[in-house]
């Protein structure tokens, strides 16, 4: 049995970019937690996408997989009784 390794082209990402994206997601998550409006939900999704793009260095498949998992978690959290 052989294993196939799929290599994604990675673009260099600075620590500053990572920190800014993580802070933006944290700020968006706090805003959404305080006031779960559609605008704050969109802001949180955009911030998460940006962080995923940086985390996965632009590998589209990995970013999409990350977004699907995040949306699934958000949907489950929104369905929980308060």
What's the average pLDDT?
A: 85
> Roughly how much helix do the residues carry, as a percent range?
over 70%
Distance between the termini: 50 Å
- Report Rg: 15 Å
Number of strands: 0
What can you tell me about this protein's structure?
The chain has 82 residues and is mainly alpha-helical. Helix content is 71%, strand content 0%. It has 3 helices and no strands. Helix 2 runs antiparallel to helix 3. The model has no long low-confidence stretch (mean pLDDT 85).
List keywords for this structure.
82 residues; mainly alpha
How would you concisely characterize the structure shown here?
The chain has 82 residues and is mostly helical. Helices cover 71% and strands 0% of the residues.
Protein topology:
Elements: H1 15-34, H2 38-55, H3 60-79
